[in-house]
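Figure 2 data, in text form.
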Amino acid sequence: MTNAQVTLIQIDNYGPWTVTPEPRREVDLQTLQSRLYADLSQLIGNREGYVFFTRFDNMVAVTNGLDTADHALIQESVGNRYPVTVSLSIAADTSPAAALGTATGQLQDAGSAQDCDRREILRGDPIVDEARTDNDVRLAHFDVNDATGKYTDQLNEFDSFINIEQGYAELMRYMRTAHESLSFFVGGDNIIAVCDDIDEAGYLDAIEHVRESVGVDLKVGVGTDRTAQGAGMAAKHALETCREECTDVEFA
């Protein structure tokens, strides 16, 4: 049984800060967001977790293995490097979507994202070491079949982008509603989903749904481990097996 630990990361008071004392240049805001994501990716990645950027002012991390002290240290590091602070909320559940729902509610209960008095909130209970297992995290790494041949080498770049994004959006919606899973675009033609105990038929169903809905063909490698990094690497190896054997789904 999976037991995903999810951390919601939210920049504090970000909206008002971007226009105080006057509107800041968008290029500077984009630079800050991208650097913050890169730093968080390294800070959490060094502790065997994964971070997904979502809307950049909000990010979602899979943090199995990180305790409260780890989260507090990450907050301190961000506070020392940036003109903004972040609040963190931790929750775990067999359903990744339910875990994120709990984490979101905990942060919302602490105050609005635009509340100037809500700073560096840290809420939630990480999974204790005694309760962790080697099957806690399941990640599915989806890849578009022959994206280079079908899109990159054939279409205008923006049209290629539209096709890839349509595939991502449809997969994201379907995996959320049908399988309580959270899917994130990670660049190129790659999507990583944080999943519960989905069997092969469930993945094939999602792939067929995307194909029928938007005409994008996918394959997926699935990995399971006690940490996000371990599950992610296992999923990558399974995806390579898909390519070598011309299959749609492989487990590692």
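Caption note: Helices lie at 14-18, 26-45, 68-81, 96-109, 147-152, 157-179, 200-214, 228-245.
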